[in-house]
Amino acid sequence: MRGGIQICYPQFGDCGLLDQHGFARNKIWVIDEDPPPLYSNESTGKSFVDLLLKPSEDDLKLWPHSFEFRLRVSLAVDGDLTLVSRIRNINGKPFSFSFAYHTYLSVSDISEVRIEGLETLDYLDNLSKRELLTEQGDAITFESEMDRTYLRSPKVVAVLDHERKRTYVIGKEGLPDTVVWNPWEKKSKTMADFGDDEYKTMLCVDGAAVERPITLKPGEEWTGRLMLTAVKSSFCFDQLELQSKGF
Ligand SMILES: O=P(O)(O)OC[C@H]1O[C@@H](O)[C@H](O)[C@@H](O)[C@@H]1O
């Protein structure tokens, strides 16, 4: 059983010296009692929590770069979820990292799901040594294992779940790429914390910065934002509606 939104930092996947997806997702974060202000209306009318991660001595042995990682998780009354990550270099030297909000979505039946917004884009196929390919279909649908990093993807993509008549709208800022992952049948059987059939009712769509790592000079800060909302599938991608939801 897996779920939630894992923070992949300072490394996405296995493209580096660290363990898969970096160490941040395995850490205990502390409550940030006095976070520096975000935009004035960032969390107006929402419930939110501010979390803080700093590297431990052991982390610094593996990855010798001091940082402060501030994460605000906000939930609106209508269920819209926003995550804002701010990573500051408090090191004497520049450092680079890759990043993803590894987002597990619950779907009714993966074979009936489609993603809109990624058509015609270039992607790295992680199932084939990150070969660079171009998406040909009208929308992304699923009939086998998929593990792709879509490059320079739009600010908003939609995951349409026909059976449940529900659409997830995923917005992102500061995150050029979108990762799409479903392990399908064979890989599911090799994953100890994942049921053999669970691939049928899940899908990961991650706002990410993978192809080009983010570099921070000493004192610099990076911000990456994810907005997740679920709407009825009759929802039309009216720009005004998206804007009213903060996309
Ligand atoms: O099992 P993990 O470490 O949580 O990773 C799950 C998957 O996460 C995806 O984001 C990667 O693209 C896949 O390659 C990986 O298998």
From TrEMBL:
One of its GO terms (molecular function) is glucose-6-phosphate 1-epimerase activity. Coiled coil: none annotated. One of its GO terms (cellular component) is cytoplasm. Keywords: Isomerase. GO terms for biological process: carbohydrate metabolic process. Pfam families: Aldose_epim. The keyword Ion transport does not apply. The keyword Ribonucleoprotein does not apply. This is Galactose mutarotase-like domain superfamily. It comes from Arabidopsis suecica (Swedish thale-cress). The lineage of its organism: Eukaryota, Viridiplantae, Streptophyta, Embryophyta, Tracheophyta.
